[in-house]
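Protocol step 4 of 5: obtain the predicted structure for the target chain.
Materials: sequence only (see below). No template structures provided, no constraints applied. The aim of this step is simply to have a reference model before the mutagenesis design in step 5. Sequence pasted as it appears in the construct record:
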Amino acid sequence: MACNNLEWRGGGIPKIVWNKSQPDINKLKKQRSNPIPTVPALDDNSSSNKNNNSSTAWSAFRGIDGSGIYTEESILTEWPNEGPPLLWKKLIGGGHASFTVAGQLAFTIEQQEENEVVIAVSINDGSVKWSYEYPAKFEEYFGGIGPRTNPLWSEGLLYTMGAVGHLHCFESNSGKLLWKKNTTEENGVQPPYWGVSTSPVIHKDMLFITPGGDQDNAIIALDKKTGEKKWSTLSGDQTYSTPALLKINNQLQLVVALKGKFVGLNPDTGKILWTHPWRIFMNNYNIAQPTRLADDTLLISAGYGTGAESFKLIKNDNELKTESLWKSKSLKTKFSSPILWKGHLYGLNENRLSCLDAEDGSLKWRGNKYGYGQIIAASGHLIILGDAGDLSLVEMNPQKFIEKATFKALDGGRTWSYPALSKGLLFIKNSREMACYDLRIK
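Step 4 output (structure tokens):
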């Protein structure tokens, strides 16, 4: 036991691990100081495009539309035992931030000692093309150190949010800093217990952030080019759930989780359209994203014994009221968010994959356990990155659970970052290393 450690991996009981999940910064710096072997660049007719926008399928949290479903092209769905071809694998700094991909670059945030570091890496070989570091360090016992969010790319600009609330805007190709803010300091709030985990969202010329606050400033719209405030609304504590832009009742709405409730806003003005109560056991804050089930129906879900609820938005004169349709304890999405596909919901019920009928919430099947990992979807399949670095491929088949492949994709422990897919390439990372797997059909 002297050679083992206890580490929390998302459940209520710690696991015995050989080594704790943490980066090796000395090896990381040495690796990045070595010359990168030249490899053939991927075909990209606009590789010299100033805006670097040849592919934006995964330019935001859970993809360009936030659904977690990749539709840019068909991917390889027959994997050998050792997994699909590995394009590259590199060391990385600490934290649970995910990748955003645009053109020839993939962007993320890492922790190196006392600094958070924004990096842009080549999708061809994983080499760092530019980086920007600043003093910031978040650490808590259960989840460890480092940033937790997903960078956001839009029209040649990159936005990043650190674990203690540092918001930066860069030119995505060069890494030139355009503007920055300390959102928690400006709003007079503290980062939530598990660190700032909500990512920025873009709509037209506005950038939405949800730092929380008690001065009608819990939700803020900024000018995406200057960082100047355009509007703010509501008071309340921020959660860990990223705002979602969803079309509801034929109207685009900004759906945001604050402590104890979900709200729908007019994204242009910040006007409150509806409110729905949502309390999680032991006063925990929401993590999972809301899911649009139909034009007037949403699904919200959480772990900690809470489960999922489907509710309908009903027009009442000039107001919108909410009416609960069904609830289920079979979709307790603690860290991850569910996928809606052809009338069925696929998601991690705590750590076990489950499938539910989206219309009535009835359970269709329970699958294998994948730990507290993350799931995305492509070509009729789920890609599941388990919390220990295993990568699995499962059919989105409501009739039965069919796991087609699983293999060890990452070493180094706790893996809580979302996978990203662009141009048929899968980008994954944990708190020690990052990798790119080739899912293109030859």
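Step 4 remarks: Helices lie at 25-33, 183-187. Residues 44-53 have pLDDT under 50 and may be disordered.
Proceed to step 5.
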